[in-house]
Amino acid sequence: KFAVGEILAFSNENFEKRTMKFSFDTFYIDQKSVGTIAWYVLSDRKNLAESGVVTFTIEEDVRMRAISGHIFIDSRGFVHAHEMMKIHKEIIKSVRMLYEQTIAENPVIDRGSLVQILRREIGKLCFVLTGRTPIIMPIIIEKNISNF
Fold first, then answer.
1. pLDDT single digits (tens) 4-18
2. Which residues, 6 or more positions from 9, have their beta carbon under 8 angstroms from its beta carbon?
């Protein structure tokens, strides 16, 4: 899907208007480029600057539909160093509980729906714990464990 748009091309102190086709999914601007800024790019950048990002990785035993091993978590711009460990522990505990509860209630849930539930509910928890709403990035890695 393309939309016809107008961009400004700057050169020294002059500028000219140009018409160009662009896709909102692939065309964005950075500090030095000329282009268009889609509304969601601006909102994501604002949210990252104000609230940060939280990423957690789950290894899932596909056959058993269970978490195998540790949940790894990382964050940037979300909490201060002195409160990070406490908040990360709460998030990890909640991710495990939420995952297990969701699978128990709906054992055939698809991956996309599971990720959306984790993202939404952990986002709510982060707001309760810190007053911030970071971008939540759940990553689920499939692990095939076979019986020997």
1. 555 556 667 776 666
2. 15, 16, 17, 18, 34
pLDDT for the residue 113: 94
SS3 string of the chain? Answer: CCEEEEEEEEECCEEEEEEEEECCCCCCCCCCCCCCCCHHHHHHHHHHHHHCEEEEEEEEECCCCEECCCCEEEEECCCCHHHHHHHHHHHHHHHHHHHHHHHHHCCCCCHHHHHHHHHHHHHHHHHHHHCCCCEEEEEEEEECCCCC
Residue 29, token pair as written in the block: 């601007």
Both structure tokens of 37: 């800024």
Residue 91 has pLDDT above 90, yes or no: yes
Tokens of 44: 């994501």
Reported pTM: 0.68
Q: How many CB atoms lie within 10 A of CB 64?
A: 11
CA 138 to the chain's CA centroid: 7
Residue 129 has φ and ψ, to the nearest 5°, of -75, -35
